């Protein structure tokens, strides 16, 4: 029996050693793979003029390397998932922004690759389409990356509604299929899509739905590479039905949503008071950039450090709106009872979800994947004030294109 135990012990030690060697080898292989992804991603980007334009906008160094890695990691991918997120999180912070930009672009392009290719080809031979596609659309589009996403959306719509003699589908009306494609795009992509529809059909399409369905939702066509029905008759009938079922106008939202921004102090304590329960309340000033797009029902219209109304942008044309300023009140210490009674104090990065106060909210909003909503908002002089606030957490798969598409395991 002792001899058998001894043999088992030796075997167990050997297995542990083999596992350690395998783990070390896997880690080394992963590092080599990231370098290979960067080289592959550059080659992938060079195959698409829009990807080249977007890549050239990334500063040379870590940001562009992150972009190249993202292009390779998202090759052929159309859905979100934990594989890409893990790769994103394993990169240096300076690489993560470029990675997320590449993946966001790849998701939109890959879901509509054929349509986008047709639209871009039409723009190359049709001067009128090219001029509309390449013109800077309006004051909202100051970021060069927005123009790339705008043109991608424009190309996709041209592939649907453009001249069939040049390869487009030639649809003559919008409907559930085409609008479903549009509503799955980024805010800039949707505006490009709408501009192309107006160019080809002569009328602007219906505005984006306040609540988007799942990506790719719509009538299923097993023979379509897009999983949608795009024929003229179904789109025209769908448009008529949508008009009949269209709800009346809704009052504008009084909710403003903000997205976190790593490394920037957005919060300043202005003053304090003691309320009727003898709790100290802090008045905090939140300073951020006004979002040029509506925040959207899932925060998809916000970039890091931006705030916007849920259903409309903050008016950036007004000189007083150069910065968004929100005053709100919150407890100085929401865990005072725990501290006084010797209970464990929550110091985690998500403590604000359970104990929002003057310390936990700024810490929570130091993460670009975190959002905070303000309710009952109204403007007083050059400041916004709110009657209530709390964290906002969109569905995991839809968190503003920051999450990474599914990587096959």
Tell me about this structure.
Helix 2 (49-56) runs antiparallel to helix 8 (144-161) and helix 6 (113-125) packs across helix 8 (144-161). Strands 1, 2, 3, 4, 5, 6, 7, 8 and 9 form a nine-stranded mixed sheet that branches. It is globular and about 75 Å long. Strand 7 (378-380) and strand 8 form a beta hairpin. It is of the alpha+beta class and 409 residues long. The chain has three domains: 26-109, no CATH class; 137-245, no CATH class; 256-398, no CATH class. 44% of the residues lie in helices and 12% in strands. The two termini are 43 Å apart. Residues 1-32, 210-242, 244-248 and 397-409 have low confidence and may be disordered. The protein contains 13 helices and nine strands.
Quick structural summary:
This protein is of the alpha+beta class and 409 residues long. The protein is 44% helix and 12% strand.
* Largest β sheet strand count, sense and barrel closure: 9 strands, mixed
Q: H/E order of the elements? A: HHHHHHHHHHHEEEEEHHEEEE
**Spatial gap, N to C terminus:** 43 Å
Oligomer classification: single chain
Question: Which structural category do the helix and sheet elements fall into?
Answer: alpha+beta
- What is the helix fraction of residues, given as a range? 40-55%
* Radius of gyration, CA atoms, in whole angstroms: 25 Å
Q: List the total number of helices.
A: 13
Q: Give the overall pLDDT as a whole number.
A: 77
Shape field: globular
Tally of DSSP β-strands: 9
Roughly what fraction of the amino acids lie in strands?
A: 5-15%
Number of domains: 3
Low confidence ranges: 1-32, 210-242, 244-248, 397-409
């Amino acid at each position: 029996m002792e001899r058998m135990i001894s043999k088992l012990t030796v075997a167990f030690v050997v297995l542990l050693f083999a596992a350690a060697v395998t783990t070390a080898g896997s880690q080394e292989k992963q590092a080599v793979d990231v370098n290979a992804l960067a080289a592959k991603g550059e080659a992938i980007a060079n195959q698409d003029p829009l990807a080249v334009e977007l890549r050239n906008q990334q500063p040379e160094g870590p940001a562009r390397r992150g972009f190249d890695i993202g292009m390779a990691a998202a090759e052929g991918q159309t859905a979100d998932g934990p594989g890409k997120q893990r790769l994103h999180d394993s990169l240096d912070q300076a690489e993560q922004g470029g990675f997320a930009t590449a993946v966001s672009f790849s998701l939109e392009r890959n879901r509509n690759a054929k349509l986008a290719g047709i639209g871009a080809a039409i723009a190359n031979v049709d001067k009128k389409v090219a001029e509309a596609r390449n013109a800077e659309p309006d004051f909202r589009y100051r970021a060069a990356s927005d123009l790339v996403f705008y043109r991608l959306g424009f190309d996709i719509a041209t592939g649907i509604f453009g001249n069939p003699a040049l390869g487009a589908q030639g649809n003559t009306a919008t409907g559930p299929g085409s609008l479903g494609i549009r509503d799955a795009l980024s805010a800039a992509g949707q505006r490009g899509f709408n501009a192309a529809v107006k160019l080809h059909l002569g009328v602007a399409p219906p505005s984006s739905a306040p609540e988007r369905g799942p990506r790719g939702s719509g009538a299923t066509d097993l023979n379509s590479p897009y999983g949608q029905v795009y024929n003229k008759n179904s789109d025209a009938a769908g448009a008529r039905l949508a008009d009949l079922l269209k709800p009346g106008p809704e009052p504008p939202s009084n909710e403003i949503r903000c997205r976190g921004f790593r490394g920037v102090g957005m919060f300043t304590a202005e003053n304090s008071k003691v309320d009727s329960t003898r709790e100290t309340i802090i008045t905090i000033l939140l300073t951020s950039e006004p979002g040029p797009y509506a925040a959207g029902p899932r925060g998809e219209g916000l970039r890091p450090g931006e705030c916007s109304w849920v259903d409309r942008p903050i008016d950036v044309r007004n000189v007083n709106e150069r910065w968004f300023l929100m005053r709100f009140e919150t407890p100085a210490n929401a865990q005072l009872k725990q501290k006084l009674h010797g209970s464990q104090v929550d110091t985690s990065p998500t403590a604000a979800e359970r104990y929002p106060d003057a310390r936990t909210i700024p810490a929570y909003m130091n993460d670009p994947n975190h959002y905070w909503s303000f309710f009952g908002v109204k403007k007083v002089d050059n400041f916004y004030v709110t009657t209530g606030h709390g964290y906002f957490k969109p569905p995991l798969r839809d968190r503003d294109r920051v999450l990474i598409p599914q990587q096959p395991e």
